[in-house]
Specification:
There is one protein chain. This protein has helices at residues 2-29, 32-43, 46-59, 87-90, 113-128, 154-161, 179-195, 229-234, 274-284, 302-315, 325-336, 353-369, 377-388, and strands spanning 141-148, 167-176, 209-211, 214-218, 257-263, 287-294, 343-347, 393-399. Helices cover 42% and strands 13% of the residues. It is α/β, with parallel strands linked by helices and 410 residues long. An 8-stranded mixed beta sheet has the order 3-4-2-1-5-6-8-7, with helices on both faces.
């Protein structure tokens, strides 16, 4: 009896795995999702339509969002992908809740989630040459930033308040799809600016927050065509800096270098990251700086591909957004317009995923000791498992807009 039970329990994981593969494979190959969408659309089942649309698009059955909000015209997929639940990641036993970072982090020489999250942003900035390595002093410089997914405001505060004094952020424009995070970030930034003296950055009340150098918007960052006109206008200083009688001649004062930042956000964009990257390259003449998820360059088996598609459903990632390094470079060159010699993609997975997995495991035990559970723990554990199976990589993406006539700073 014991031997039979042992055989059953030892084979159970493999049996479950095979059942999952079969279920996903049938749904994908026969395009059941697409058929059900048509049926649901016919009978007006809104919630069913939303769910099936998300699944079918994530699996790659449909390349574009199917349903639109009747009032705004915007697609309704994942409008509240992230809320404020990640405060459980930022809370510390020593200091309580002081930050609200939300990215996978760069875990070299730290086991703190807030510090790792800040370190990931710093690593990107150093890779781009926006901030200098310790001990190196360079000339003053000016930059403008379009932040695609600013979260709860921590990266906004860092980029506008904590950069070295030789860096002048002439314009910061942040976009988020989450109204919850937008309102939370707005209050935090206003409180911080009121406490600081002098106060070179401030915000005004209104649907979008803008005054001086900071503009915050709730919009679909993946779709520039849906942006309000005020957002487009706020980006104009990136191309045409204001002049005054006291300004230096153009030959002595180069215009700010424009950077588009995607800090652990671009892989979520629906239908893809391509429209906004094309817009920022062509309209803003912008450099690109991002942390993004990649598929490994080695060929995946059918089993691995099906598991990755299942993960994409759980993580709300359109499957076709996961490119190999070579495919990503090809996309930036042939579809966006960057030159291949100006593109760098660096795999930093070893400093991202193991540290995140270790932290989540430790935080889970800490929270369980005091009787608290968080539904997103399972999601982070799935990420760790996917990485251990070598199904995902994490990379820094740097693409410089090539100048043809004049220098733009960095």
């Amino acid at each position: 009896m014991n031997s039979h039970w042992h055989k059953f329990t030892s084979s159970y994981p493999r049996l479950l795995e095979r059942c999952l593969i079969i279920a996903i494979g049938v749904a994908y190959i026969t395009s059941i999702g697409w058929s059900l969408v048509r049926i649901a659309a016919k009978f007006g089942l809104t919630s069913v339509r939303w769910s099936i649309s998300r699944i079918s698009q994530t699996l790659g059955l449909t390349p574009k969002p199917i349903f639109q909000d009747s009032d705004s015209g915007e697609h309704v997929l994942d409008k509240e992908l992230y809320g404020l639940e990640h405060m459980a990641l930022n809370w510390t036993w020593e200091g309580g809740l002081k930050t609200m970072w939300m990215n996978m982090g760069y875990w070299k020489d730290t086991d703190s989630f807030p510090q790792a999250s800040e370190n990931l942003l710093k690593y990107l900035l150093k890779k781009a040459g926006i901030i200098d390595p310790p001990g190196k002093i360079t000339r003053d410089r000016s930059i403008s930033i379009l932040d695609l997914g600013f979260g709860c405001g921590d990266q906004t505060l860092y980029l506008t308040r904590q950069l070295p004094q030789n860096i002048d952020v002439t314009s910061y424009v942040g976009i988020t799809l989450s109204k919850v995070q937008y309102n939370f970030a707005k209050k935090r930034i206003l409180d911080r600016l009121e406490d600081d003296t002098p106060m070179p950055f401030s915000l005004l009340n209104g649907d979008q927050k803008r005054k001086g150098n900071i503009s915050l918007y709730t919009a679909d960052a993946s779709n520039p065509a849906s942006w309000p006109s005020s957002l487009h206008l706020s980006l104009l200083p990136a191309l045409s800096p204001p002049t005054s009688p006291f300004s230096q001649p153009p030959s002595q004062k180069p215009s700010p270098a424009h950077w588009t930042l995607g800090l652990d956000s671009l892989y979520h964009f629906r239908p893809s990251r391509l429209p906004v990257l094309k817009y920022t390259h062509d309209k803003l003449q912008s450099n690109l700086l991002a942390f993004d998820l990649l598929r490994p360059s080695s060929r995946m088996s059918v089993t691995q591909s099906l598991f990755l598609r299942a993960f994409c459903i759980a993580a709300s990632i359109p499957y076709h957004n996961l490119l190999t390094k070579e495919e990503y470079i090809h996309m930036l060159v042939t579809q966006v317009g960057y030159h291949e010699e100006e593109i760098i993609i660096e795999d930093i997975s070893d400093f991202v995923f193991p540290g995140l997995a270790s932290f989540v495991s430790r935080r889970t035990r800490e929270m369980e000791k005091i009787g608290m559970k968080w539904r997103r723990w399972a999601g982070f554990k799935v990420v760790a498992w996917v990485v251990q199976k070598s199904l995902l990589r994490g990379g820094v993406v740097l693409a410089r807009w090539r100048e043809t006539e004049t220098s733009r700073g960095v």
